Structure formats: structure tokens, C-alpha cells
Amino acid sequence: MTSDLDRARPAADLVERLARPVPSEVASMDAWWRANNYLTIGQIYLLDNPLLREPLTSDHIKPRLLGHWGTSPGLSFIYTPR
User: Could you tell me which residue ranges the Xylulose 5-phosphate/Fructose 6-phosphate phosphoketolase N-terminal domain spans (predicted)?
Assistant: First the structure.
């Protein structure tokens, strides 16, 4: 028969792993978060050339911005996969 302590151990292990991510996890999360933020900014500000395959010009920028940066970085971080 398993005790309450045995059942609590997997949760404690998860908390420990989340509290101390390894450097490769941090690097992966950071890269994903930065890419997500880049896409968000592109959607808000750019009309064309989102991958910057040519030098950015004023023609690429939307004449009227719809949306704002606001909570985008925080939301991107919440949805960052681990």
C-alpha cells in the first residue's frame, strides 16, 4: 500500500525540476520566447517583409497600427513550452 508521502514524491520532484531548470532548457525557452515576441511585433507593426529578407523601409510598416505591445511579452512567456 502506498502512503501519502509516496504519492506526494512525484509532485515534489516536479517542483524541484521546475525550480532549477538546466541551462539547455533555459536557452530553449529564451529562444522560443524571443521568436514569439518577434512574430508579435511583426504582426503589429509590419505590413510586408516580416522575415527582413530585404532592408526594412517605411513601405513595410503599417500606416495605421492595430493593436499594441501591451501584455504580449507576458503572454508569450506564459505559453513558452518547457
Answer: 23-80
pLDDT at 27: 94
32 touches 78 (CB < 8 A): no
Predicted TM-score (pTM) of this structure:
0.68
What are the Cα distances from residue 14, in Å, to 19, 21, 24?
Answer: 8, 11, 17
Reading the block at residue 40, the C-alpha cell is 508579435
Q: Of 33, 15, 45, which Cα lies nearest the Cα of 81?
A: 33
CA–CA distance, 58 with 22 (Å, rounded to integer) = 42
- Residue 7 has which C-alpha cell? 504519492
Do 60 and 48 form a contact (C-beta atoms < 8 A)?
Answer: yes
* pLDDT, tens only, 56-80: 999 999 998 877 788 888 888 888 8
Residue carrying C-alpha cell 539547455: 24
